[in-house]
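Folding Task

Wanted — backbone structure
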Amino acid sequence: MSSRQDEALAHAAVTALTGQLALVPKPGLPDPRDLGARASRRDHCMLRWSAKALAPGLVAMAAAARRTGEPTPGLRTELGAIGRCTEHSVGLAGGGHRGALWALGLLVAAAALDPRAGARDVAATAKRIAAHPDKGAPRRPSRGSSVSAKYGAAGARGEARAGFPHVRRALDALTQARSAGATEEQARLDALLTVMSTLQDTELLYTAGPIGLRHVQAGARTVLEAGGTATHAGAQALTTLDTDLHTRAWSPRGSAGLLAGALFLDSLPVGTGARAA
């Protein structure tokens, strides 16, 4: 059975994901600006509904972790089974968020194992869970794993097994931007760009190849080197990058999912988020 604590963790994770969806402008990613168009409104609403469809699965993951009490191989297998069922439910709600489910599921489970842990300790516990093989996983490789093998990219599994380094970088970027006086939206956009600037995003590798990935990384660095989104030059560079990526139909979805993971850790009680770092 789930507890209120499990439900609170799941709610925080879904809130982090919907908060990421609300950011404007997100380079190459859906945002609420074009809701006047019927198709755009439908797509954005679908993403919000499918984000909320993650909640029951995330509650189940937190409950499984709390019941198990340790980051064991058995817990990893159970989380995988719950995740696959949740993917099916999310597909019925419109699809999307597969990468975010992987990151948020591990982080929610890790947070449930030790509710008093700090953000980086939660990431370290998630690493211990991800280190175990998922014995129930389908033998057929996923698109992401195939792309990872082809280009030597870490991919979602590598990110988790390394302790979510890009989630931790995003937390640092949030702290830095807030300390510099940025608004919350600007701080979150800077965190997203920080992830984009170095992440070997398998979605981008699949659609744009290595040259396209480097183009996106360079564009993100240009915004940050201009002073971030809180500056006039940085805001202009962000608009240019956003227009460019939408024109090319290149979407850094992996970065968006990891930002959601950072926002989840940031939302945890005092002592666990970037505000307390």
User: Anything to note?
Assistant: The radius of gyration is 18 Å. Residues 35-39, 271-277 have pLDDT under 50 and may be disordered. The first helix runs from residue 4 to 21.
